[in-house]
Amino acid sequence: xxxxxxxxxxxxxxxxxxxxxxxxxxxxxxxxxxxxxxxxxxxxxxxxxxxxxxxxxxxxxxxxxxxxxxxxxxxxxxxxxxxxxxxxxxxxxxxxxxxxxxxxxxxxxxxxxxxxxxxxxxxxxxxxxxxxxxxxxxxxxxxxxxxxxxxxxxxxxxxxxxxxxxxxxxxxxxxxxxxxxxxxxxxxxxxxxxxxxxxxxxxxxxxxxxxxxxxxxxxxxxxxxxxxxxxxxxxxxxxxxxxxxxxxxxxxxxxxxxxxxxxxxxxxxxxxxxxxxxxxxxxxxxxxxxxxxxxxxxxxxxxxxxxxxxxxxxxxxxxxxxxxxxxxxxxxxxxxxxxxxxxxxxxxxxxxxxxxxxxxxxxxxxxxxxxxxxxxxxxxxxxxxxxxxxxxxxxxxxxxxxxxxxxxxxxxxxxxxxxxxxxxxxxxxxxxxxxxxxxxxxxxxxxxxxxxxxxxxxxxxxxxxxxx
Amino acid sequence: xxxxxxxxxxxxxxxxxxxxxxxxxxxxxxxxxxxxxxxxxxxxxxxxxxxxxxxxxxxxxxxxxxxxxxxxxxxxxxxxxxxxxxxxxxxxxxxxxxxxxxxxxxxxxxxxxxxxxxxxxxxxxxxxxxxxxxxxxxxxxxxxxxxxxxxxxxxxxxxxxxxxxxxxxxxxxxxxxxxxxxxxxxxxxxxxxxxxxxxxxxxxxxxxxxxxxxxxxxxxxxxxxxxxxxxxxxxxxxxxxxxxxxxxxxxxxxxxxxxxxxxxxxxxxxxxxxxxxxxxxxxxxxxxxxxxxxxxxxxxxxxxxxxxxxxxxxxxxxxxxxxxxxxxxxxxxxxxxxxxxxxxxxxxxxxxxxxxxxxxxxxxxxxxxxxxxxxxxxxxxxxxxxxxxxxxxxxxxxxxxxxxxxxxxxxxxxxxxxxxxxxxxxxxxxxxxxxxxxxxxxxxxxxxxxxxxxxxxxxxxxxxxxxx
Lengths: 468, 468
Prior knowledge:
Two copies of one chain form a homodimer.
Chain A: H1 3-23, H2 37-40, H3 53-64, H4 86-98, H5 109-125, E1 133-137, H6 140-155, H7 159-163, E2 171-176, H8 181-189, E3 197-200, H9 210-222, E4 226-233, H10 245-255, E5 258-262, E6 287-290, H11 292-295, E7 303-307, H12 310-317, H13 348-383, E8 387-389, E9 397-402, H14 410-423, E10 430-434, E11 437-443, H15 451-466
Parallel strand pairs in A: 2-3, 2-4, 4-5, 5-6
Antiparallel strand pairs in A: 1-7, 6-7, 8-9, 9-11, 10-11
Helix pairs in contact in A: 4-13, 5-13, 6-8, 6-12, 9-10, 14-15
C-alpha cells in the first residue's frame, strides 16, 4: 500500500472510528451469531494477489463487525471493563506507526524512560509507597505469575531458577476461595502445582479469613510442606471483595511469606483518597498489580506491576546473551529483564496521553461517579421486593439476583434472565456463583457510561424478570 | 476528550503518521541521548488538571520522538526487524477503537473465528502440515515457554501441572549453543532450572550436531536424568543457522522427546517454496513458532504458534472458573485456554489486513527480494579484501567483520566500528559473537528497505572502517 493510499484510507478510518465511538451505544452489545458462522464467511485460503483496501474494509464491516462484542458500549456491564478513551486511541495510533520494540533501553530510550516516569506517576497517584518500583506487564495474569516466580526465587535463594524445583521442598501458596483463576494458572506454569494452592475460606463479605489462613499454614508446616506466598485480593473478580491486607501482611511477616496483592480491577479506585482506607496494610506487600487497562481509560494491554525489591524480579528474569548486550546495560533499565517476554510494545505512551488528557482530577471524578452510581443502584435493588443483593457493594460491582415468586429454582431463573437480557442486545452482563448461588454481576465502569444507561438497564432487568 | 476534538486530532495524527512514514529515513535511526535525559525532561508528577491535546502532542514531538530508535527506518539493520506496514497500522487503529477483550469466544466471536482462519491461512502459506492448529501468542518467548510446559505436561501425564515438579524426575532440555535466550528464560519460569538446559555444540555453519545431541541424551540418561524436549532453531538469532530438523526429529522420536522448532524470524521465509528445502523434517515437530511481527509486515505483537496436538496445550492452560463459563464452551475455541494470559487483544485483524493487502504473491516478492539482496551483498563483502563473512548467508542476515590491517585486536576494532556507524545515525546494526569472535550483524529485512539503502550503508561501512 503506497503512502498516499494509506493517508487517504487512514483519514476515512478516522471518520469511521469517531462515528463508531459516537454511535457505539446503537449497536447490540453482544452479537447474534452461532459458533462457526463467521469463520465460514471468510475464505479458506489467503488471496494470491493483493486486494484493494476498500474491499478489505467492506468485508470488515460486513463479516467482522456484526460478530463483535462491543466492549466500548456504555451498557457493557460484564466481566470487568476493558476501557479505552480517545487520548488512549490516539496514542495507540502513534505506537503502531512508530512500531518500536521496547525490550532494552537502547532499542528505544524514550519508551523505557517514559515507562519509568509513568510508573512513578501512577505510584504517586495511588499513594503507593514511594520506594516501590513499577513496570508495565501485559496482564495481571503475567504480573501474578511474576510474583510467584519472585517468591520462589527468594525462598530458594535462586536455586529454583538455577536447578529447577526437582529437589526443592513442596511449596504451598495461599489465596481465598474467591481469588482469580490466574493464580492457579501461575501455579501450574511455575511448576508449583495447582494442588499446592490452598483456597482459604472467606467470610460473609467474601474476604479471606486470616485465622483460617494461619491455621492452614500451620497444618501445612506440620505436614512438612513449605509455605511460600499469599496472594491477597483487593477486589475479587466475583464480587470485588477485599481481603484484610493488614492482618494478612502480619501473617506473612510472621511466617516469612511473600505477599502479593492482586488489585487488577479495583486498584484504580486508590486514586481516590477516601478509598485508601480499604487498602490499609498494602504498604507491607512485596508486590502489587492493578490494570489501568480495566478502569483507567487506557487501552489493553497495560498492567502496572509494582515490587518492593526489584532485584528479586531481575534475578528471576535477567539474561543477557551477547546479541543483547549494550554499552549502557549498567546504567539503565532493560525492561526485558523485568518479565517473561523479550519483545515489548511501547505501552507507556498511552498512559501518558490518558493521564495528561484527563488530569488526575478528571480521572478521580469518573471513578468517584461510578462508585456513587453503584451505591445509588444498590439502594434501588435493595428497595425492590423481588430482587436481592448478594454481596457488599464497596466498589462498582453489584452481585444480585431476581427472587421469582413463581419459580423456586432461582439459579435457573436467573440464568434464563441473563440469557434474555444479553440476547436483547441492550446490555451485556455476566454471572458468577457466590457460596454456590448463581448471581448476576453488574459492573458500572465503562468509560462512556451515563446514569441514563443504568436507569434504562435497571428498568429492562425488572421488566424482563417479571415477565419470565 | 470530546469526540469532535478526537476527530480533529485523529485527522491531524493521520497526517503526522503518513508524513512520518514518508520521511522516516531522514531521522537518525537511533537517538543521541544519554541515560536519564528523557526521564528528567518529564515532570515528576501527573498533572492535576486536564491538559489540551495540542500541548501533549507538542511534548511528544519535543521530548519523546528525539529519544526513539526508529525501527521502521529502512536502514534499521539491527537485531531482527519488527516490521509494520500501512495496512497493519490501519488494523491497529481499528483494534484500538473497538477495544475488545478477546479471551473467550463469547467476548468477541469474530475475533476468535478470524484468528482461527488466519492461523489456517498462515499454516497453508508456509506449507505446514494441514493437521496443525495455530494460536496467536504475543511473542516467541511465550510460545517457547508454552512448548516446554506442554512437553512437561505430556511427560508427567499432567502431574507436573497438578502436583508441581517436587517429586518429579530431573528433566533436561536440549538446544544448540547458538539458541535463543528465551529458552533459558522458559526453563527458569517452568521450574525446570537453567542448569538443566543442555547447550549442544554446533558445526561450522552454527547448526546443532545431532550426534552430539544423542551423546548428551545418553549421558544424561546414564546419570539418571530425564530428557524432555529438544528446541531446534530454524534460524538462530546470531547468524540464522538452521538446525538439521530431520535428524533431530529422528532423535526425538527415538528418545520420545518433544520437538519444538523456534523459527521466530526465519519462519516467514517458508512462504517461498524454494526455501522449504531447509525445513525438511519440520513436519515431525510437536510445536513450531514464527513471528509475523518480525518479517511479515505485521505490527508487534503477533507470534504464530502451531501445535500438532492442541489437547496438550489445553490440558496445560485450561481453567474455567464460574465467572468465565459460557453456554458455548463445548463448541468453540476459548483462546484464553491456549496460553498464559487471560486477557487478549484482537490481533488477527492486522494479519487479515496484511495478508489481503499484499496478497501471498506480494509477500513472497518482498521476502525473495530481501534474500536476493543478501546474496548480492554477501558477494560484495567476500570480494572486499579487508572484510570477511563469518557465517553462511542462508537468509538475509550477514555476520561480518572488518579485518584491520593496522590493529590486530579485531574484536576491539569492530566494536569501535559498530559504535561509530550507529552514532552516525545513518544506520543501526547490532553485534554478536560467533565462536568467540565479535561480529557485526546486518539484517536486510525492513519493510521499507531498498537496494540504495544497502549500497549507501555498505559504502559508509567501508569508509568508516578504513578511516578508523
